Amino acid sequence: MGKVYLIITIFVGIAAGLGGATFYYAKGYSYLQDDPAACDNCHIMDNQFYSWQRSSHRSVATCNDCHTPKNFAGKWLTKGLNGWNHSYAFTTGDFHEPIQVNRRNRNIAEENCRYCHQMVVSNLTFHETEDTKIECTSCHRSVGHMK
Q1: Taking all residues of the chain, what is their mean pLDDT, rounded to a whole number?
Q2: Same-domain check for residues 46 and 17
Q3: Within its chain, how far is the Cα of 18 from the centroid?
Q4: Which domain range does residue 8 map to?
Q5: Alpha-carbon dihedral sign for residues 116, 84, 44, 35
Q6: By the 8 A CB rule, do 134 and 126 touch?
Q7: Does the residue 102 lie in any domain?
Q8: Same domain flag for 41 and 16
Q9: Does one domain contain both 55 and 122?
């Protein structure tokens, strides 16, 4: 029985060491903050980061303001899920270039557009169906990121 515990302890130690080193090397700690520079840790996000710097939203919104839910649990769940997905995609090389936002994250950004601009959009009537969904970015494609 003692050998089994020793093997498990060694395996857990190696996994924790590799995980910690990878987290440090990938600057994982920076994703725990709201600094937009963290989104530029990976070269795949260069265009998004630099276009945000030239956008009208630079002075009023960070990446998390637009790309994570407003509530605490939703924000950290989204950051964790996106972190996992990005780590997997970039490690395996299995991602579209240029990077594209997925449906879940597009819906979060849309909700945040409508939240921040509620005074403007509150009087608009949307006759939407799933096939005719109107998104803010349908007309305002270059607001958050200059295209």
Answers
A1: 86
A2: no
A3: 24
A4: 1-32
A5: positive
A6: yes
A7: yes
A8: no
A9: yes
Tell me the H-state helices in 26-122: 46-53, 63-67, 72-92, 103-116, 118-121
Domain count across the chain: 2
Within-domain flag for 144: no
Question: Rounded distance, CA 84 to CA 78, Å?
Answer: 10
pLDDT digits (tens, 9 = 90+) for 24-64: 887 878 788 888 888 887 777 888 888 888 888 889 999 99
- Cβ count near 38 (within 10 Å): 20
Q: What predicted TM-score, i.e. pTM, was given to this entire model? A: 0.77
The answer to whether the CB of 78 falls within 8 A of the CB of 69 is yes
pLDDT digits (tens, 9 = 90+) for 112-143: 999 999 998 887 776 777 777 778 888 887 77
Q: What are the φ and ψ backbone dihedral angles of 17, each rounded to 5 degrees?
A: -65, -45
The Cα–Cα gap between 130 and 139 comes to 18
